[in-house]
Amino acid sequence: MLLGAMDDSQHSTVMSGGNAAFVESLYEAYLSDPQSVDAEWRTYFDELRGGARDTPHTPVQQAFLEIGRRRAPVVVQASGGVNAAQQAAGALITAYRVYGHISANTNPLKWRGLPVVPELTPEYYGLTSADLNERVQDGHFKGTLGEVIDQLRRTYCGAIGFEYNYLPSREREWFQERVERNKGRGAFTGPERQRIMAKLNAAEGLETYLHKRYVGQKRFSLEGSEAFIPLMDRLIQRGGELGVKETVIGMAHRGRLNVLVNIFGKKPADLFAEFEGKKVLSDDPDIAGDVKYHMGFSSDVRTPGGPMHLALAFNPSHLEIVSPVVHGSVRARQDRRGDTERRQVLPITVHGDAAVSGQGVVMETLNLSRLRGFTTGGAVRIVINNQIGFTISDPRDTRSSRYCTDVAKIANAPVLHVNGDDPEAVVFAGDLALEYRQTFGKDVFIDLISYRRHGHNEGDDPTMTQPIMYREIKDHTTTRALYAAQLEREGVLPAGEGDAMVSRFRDRLDAGDTVVEEMENLEQSKLAADWRAYKNTHWTEDAPTGVSEETLTQLGAKLASVPEGFKLHRVIERVLKTRGDMASGNTPLDWGMGEMLAYATLLVEGYHVRLVGQDSGRGTFVHRHAVLHDQAAQDPMNEEYMALGHLAPEQGRVEVIDSTLSEEAVMAYEYGYSTSEPLALVAWEAQFGDFANGAQAVIDQFISAGENKWQRLSGLTLLLPHGYEGAGPEHSSARLERYLQLCAQGNMQVVVPSSAAQIFHLLRRQVVRPYRKPLIVMTPKSLLRNKLAASPLSELTHGSFRDVIGDDTVTGARRVIISSGKLHWELFEARNEAGLDNVALIRLEQLYPFPADALRAELAQHPSAQVVWAQEEPRNQGAWLMIQDDLRGVLADGQTLTVASRPRSASTAVGYMHRHVQEQKALIQAALGAREPQAAQEAVTTAIKNAQAQS
C-alpha cells in the first residue's frame, strides 16, 4: 500500500473534474502491468508509489488516493473487505521507506536530537489504539499493526538510514528486498564478528599508540571514526569474492595513516621512522618528498577470490581533488585488463563531510560517472562524517541541503547513512554498497556518521568553537569498547578478551612488522603496471620518430575514407578529399593531417591513444575530424565513425572523447589515467588554452610536482590553443609563463611547434621515447590552416622533433630573431616582403627543458649579431621573464640580447581587433629592426597609445 507523495495542487490537477475515474482505471492497469500504460503515466505512478510493492485492488487504491489528496490526519475507513489497519500498514510501510532515514538512529552523539516526521506516526492516519491490535501482513512485515510499526522502526530507523526511493524501479526493488529481508542491518557469524572486532581494535590501537609515542605531532587521527577500518577490510575481502582484482583508493588526511598500516600492510616500523624523521623517500636532492599523510602506497593482499592489488593514490591537501585522479587510474587499469564490464577494478573514494558538499570537483566527478568516455562502473564513496568541517559544526554554515551527501542525487546514487558506533551496521552498509555497485555499475555513498575526538589536527583545540559537542565527546565511550563489551556479553568473545586484544596489538606494533595477515608480498607487484623502463632516463634520449612513406600513405588513405553508405557533411567531404591528396604526396600536409597520422602510426605500432577535450572529435577549430557523423543516420547508436579505430586488426586502443564542460575534474581524470598506463598517449585538450585556468590545482599539485614529491611518473599531454589573433583576453593566451614558472629539475616539457611535421614528430616522441614527463603544447589556431606551416610527406619519414630550427637561408646575419609558434611565420612574411636579407629567423620550438646546445650552435653562425627575443605576449607574460637568463647563456662573443613584445599589461590581450592589429604590426616592425633595438619597446607602446586615442 502507498502513501501519496504529491502535494495538494499536483493531486488536484491530476484528479480534477471527470479525470478521477480515468486515472483510477489507469492506476489499476498499472498495478497489473506497469508496461500497459504510457511512459508519462508510468513515471507519475512510480513517483507516487515511492517504491512500494502493490497488487491491484480497487478499494485499496481508492483509499490510497484519498490519503494522498489530503495532508491533514485521515481516518482510514474500511472498504471493500480491506480493513483500516491493513490500509494504514501499507501507507506506513511506504512512509518508512521514503522518510525513515530522517528519524534513523544514525548519530552516535545525542546533542542534536532527531527530527520528528509526522508521516511515520499512526496518529497521522487517525488510527486508534484499538487499530494497533489488528493483524496485518505486507511482504516481510507481519503481525499486529503495532508490531509491524515496531518492525518498520527497527528496519528503517535503526542504525542505518536508507535513501534509495528515487532510484529506478528495478534498483529500488533490489534495495528494498535486501533491506527488509535483513531487518535493516544484516546478521553476522561469530568469526565474522570477531574479525570486525579485530579490525576495530587495530584501528583504535594504532591511534592510541601514536598519540602516546608522538605527542602533539600531526597525524589527522581516525579516533571517533574507527569503524572505517573494518568497513574497508570488508569491502576488500568481500570484493575479492565478487570478482574484484584491483582496488584503487583515494582519500584525504583523516585516517590515512591508519589505512596504510591496517589495510595496506605498511610496516609500523617504517611509519615510526617517518614520525622520527629517520626515513625519507630518497636522498636525491631532486626529490622533494611530501608529508607522510599525503603519501600513496600499494600492496597485494589475499582475498577469498584470489590476490587483490591495492593502490592508495598520492594526493595533496586540495580537498577532494584526488577523486577524479582515482577514477582516471581505475579506467586505465580496466582498459589494460580488457574489463569492459568494469567489475574487476574497484574505485573507493573517501570524503570529508564539509568537503563533499563544499568542493565543486565532487559534482564534476559525479557527472562523469555515467559518461561513455569516463565511466568506471561506479565507485563506493565513503564520507567520514565528523559532523564538523574544520571548526564549523552547524549545517547552516556548511551546506544548504539536509545531508552533506545530497550531491549524490545528481548521479542517481543511493546513500546509506550509518551510525559509526555500530560496526556491524557499518559493515552491512558496506556489503549492500559493494553488491549494488557490482550489480548495477553505479556510484553508491556510505555516510559514516561519527565524530572527531581531537581537533582538525592534534594541535588544534576544538572546544574553543564547539564546547557543547566536545563536552559529549569527552565522555563518550569509544566504539571499540562498546563493541567489545557487546561481544563479551553475547559470548562471542570470552570475558576480558577485549582488553587482551589491546595488549596483543600493542605488542605487534612494538615489533614493527606488518599487522595485516593477508599480505601477499612487499615487493614489486605483478598485478601493477611496470614503469621501470622509464626511470632514470633523460630528455635527450635518442628517439627517431620517422615512419616509412609506404605506411604513411596506407594509413593516410584509411583516414580519408568512410564505410560504404556513410553520408558525409559536405564540408568534411572536401576535407577528406584533400587528405587523400596529402596521403598520396600530391599536397603538403596541414596540421590536422600531421596530427592524425601521428595517432594512426602510434596505434598500428601497438600504443594506445586517448584524446579528451570539450570538442576534440572535430576539433574546436574544426581541423581534426577524428570522429565523423553520418548525415543520413536514423539510429543514434550507429551514426559515428572513427577511422582511427579501424586501421589494423591488432592495433592499440583509441578513444577520442568530447568531454563534459569541466576542466578540473576531467584534467585530473586524465592525469590519473596517464599515471596507470605508460603505453598510451594521453592528451587533454583545452577548448582555448586560457580555460586550463579552471584546473590550476591539477597543474600545480599533480602535473608539475607529482614526480618530484611522490616519484609518480606521468606522460600526460596538454594541448592548449594559444596565439594572438585579436579574439580578446580569454581567447589569446594559454598563460605560457605559468607553465615555465613551474618548470624545474626536468619535471615537464613545454613546446610551441610550428609545422605539421613538428606536431607529428612531437606526439610520436612523447610515447616512443622511453621518457615519461608531462608535455605542455601551445597549439595554434590560425596556424592550423596556414600554408606556411604545412609540411611535405617526406618530412615525416625521418628524424624526430626538432627543439630548435635554424635559418638555412641566411649566414652571418646582422640581426637574429628568436621566436616561437605563429609569430615566426608572421616575421617570415614581413621579412621577405621588406627584403631584409641580413635578418635570420630561428624557431625555438622547445622552451623547457631549454635546448641550450642546439640554440648555441645556431647562434654561433651569426657572430656579433643583434639577438632579439620576439613574443606576442606582454612583457610581463609569455616566455621572456623565464628564459632570458637561458638566452643570455647561449650568446656568442659580441652578441647582445634585447626583447620585442607588447608592453606590460594586466590583461593578457586587448579586446578590440583594430588595436590588436596595430599592436601586432608595431611588434613585428620592432623585432625586424625597423627602429633601433633600444627603441623597440617604445615603438610598441606608442602604437598602442595611438590605437587607444583612436578608439
TrEMBL record:
Give every Transketolase-like pyrimidine-binding domain span: 589-786
- Keywords, sorted A to Z: Oxidoreductase, Thiamine pyrophosphate
Instruction: Name the cofactor(s).
Output: thiamine diphosphate
InterPro entries recorded for this chain? 2-oxogl_dehyd_N, 2oxoglutarate_DH_E1, DH_E1, KGD_C_sf, ODO-1/KGD_C, THDP-binding, Transketolase-like_Pyr-bd
Q: Which GO terms describe its molecular function?
A: oxoglutarate dehydrogenase (succinyl-transferring) activity; thiamine pyrophosphate binding
* Function comment: E1 component of the 2-oxoglutarate dehydrogenase (OGDH) complex which catalyzes the decarboxylation of 2-oxoglutarate, the first step in the conversion of 2-oxoglutarate to succinyl-CoA and CO(2).
Which family does this protein fall into?
Answer: Belongs to the alpha-ketoglutarate dehydrogenase family.
Under the heading NCBIfam families, the entry gives:
2oxo_dh_E1, PRK09404.1, PRK12270.1
Protein name, entry field: 2-oxoglutarate dehydrogenase E1 component
**Organism this protein belongs to:** Deinococcus maricopensis (strain DSM 21211 / LMG 22137 / NRRL B-23946 / LB-34)
